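Troubleshooting log. The previous structure file for this entry was overwritten by mistake, so regenerating from the original sequence record. Sequence copied from the archived sheet and checked twice against the printout by T.R.
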Amino acid sequence: MDKTENADSGKIVQSPPAAFSNRYLWHLSGRLLPLFSLLFITIIYSHRLSLDEYSLFQSVWMYANVISVIIGYGVTTIIFSGDTSTLISFIKRNRKEIFTSYSILALAACVIFYIVSDHFTVALKLLVILFIFFQFINTILETWIIRNEKQSQYLLINLAYAAFFFLWHLYIVFQPVFQLNLLIVGVIVLSALKMILLFTIKPAATGTDHITTATEKELKRHWTYAGINDIFGILAKWADKLILIYLLTPGEFAIFFNGTIDIPFVAMFISITGSYMMMRMASDKKNIELTSHLFRENFLMISSFSFPLFFFLFFFRNEFFLIFFGEKYLPAVPIFAVSVFILLLRVNHFGGILQIHSRSDWVTIGSMIDLITSTVLVFILYHLFGMQGAACAIVISTLVQLTYYLIKSSQLLGKPTRELVPFNGLLARLLLSGVSLFIVKMLLPSVSATTSLIIGAIVMVVAISVSGWKYFRQMLKSS
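Regenerated output below.
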C-alpha cells in the first residue's frame, strides 16, 4: 500500500481523520439528485430536439451558469472557508456596502448578457435573467445550510425539486411544439418555491460581538480575490463554448457542446470533496501534517472515481454516444475523445490549501493564467485543428493552472510536491482502471453496443469499488 494512504506520523496526528464521513454523504446526495435529473434531461432532449433546438436549449443554461457564478462573486467560497460567526458579524457591519456592490455587479452582468445573447428573443433574455436571480439566492441558501449542518432538510428539498424539475422538462419535450420560454417559466416557479422552502430552515448561527479591524480587512481581501477567482474560473471553464457559439452554426454548436459535455458528477464531486476538505483544514490551519494528509487523501478519493470513469468513457465512447445521444451526435465522438482527458486532471480541489491560508491572490493568478491560456489556445487550435483543437485547449490550460497551484501549495507549506501528491496511489488506480477496462474492451469486439456498454459499466463500478473501498468503509463507520 502506498505510504500516503497509511496513518501520518503520530507526532502530529495520532489518528488521521477520515476523508469521507456521513455528513459528506448527505451533502453528496443532495447535490446528486438535481444532477441525475439534468443527465436524463440531456439524454432525452438530445434525442427529441433538432440540432438547432438543442443548441438554443443548452446555450440558455450555459449563459445562466456563467452569469450566476459571476454575480455570486465568491460568496460560496467565503461561507465554506471562513468562520461562521465572524462572517455574520462582518456582513452585519458592511451590509450596505455588500448589497450595493452585488447589485452593481448583477446589473452589469445581466446587461452584458442581454447584449451578447443576440440570438435570444427579448422575452427569453428576461426570463433567463429572472431564473439567474433565483438560482443565485438558492445557491447562497444551500451553501449556508450545509455549512451549518442542516443536511436532512436540504436533502428532502432537493429531492422534491429534482423530481419536479425532471417532470416539467419531460412534459415540455413531449409537447407537439417545443416551447423553450414556457420551460423556463416553469423552472422559475420551481426555483421560487425551492427558495421559500430553504428560507424556512434556520441554522443556529450568531455573530460575534468582537471583530478586529485586521480581521475585517483580511476578510475583505479574501472575499475580493475569491470573487475574482470565481469569475476567471467560470469564464475559463466555458471559454471554448463562449467563443465558438459565435463561430459555429447552431447545428455545429450542438455537436461541439455534446462533444465537450462536462461530466456533471465529476465537477460536483470535486466541489463537495473540496469544500469538505477545506472545512477540515480550517479547523486547524497551523497543522501542516493534517493539511498534507487531507490533501493527499482527497487525491486518492477523487481519482478512485474519476480514473475508472475516464477509461470507461474513452474506450466505450462510440457506444456511449450512440446509445445516450443518438446517431446524429456521432460526429461529436472525436471531439469527446480529446475533451474527456480532462478527467485525468480533475482529481483534487487544487486551490484548497491556498484558499484556507488566505492566499486567494495566488488562486486568482492561477485562474487568470487558465483564462488567458484557454482563450488564446482556443483561437489558435481551433484554426489549426477545428473543434478538436478547441477541446484540447481547455485540457492544456487546465494542466497549466493545476501545475501552478501545486507549486504554490508546496511553497506555502514548505513541503516538496511528492509529499502532497500520492504518486504511487494515483498510479495504482490508473493502472487498475486502465488495464481492466482495456481488456474488457478488447474481449468485446462483436457484441452489440448496448451489451458492450453495460459490461464496461459493470467493470467500471467494480474498479471504483476496489479503488475507493477505504472511503466507503469510512462512510459506513460514521453512519
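The CA atoms of residues 321 and 330 lie 6 Å apart. Archived copy saved in two places this time.
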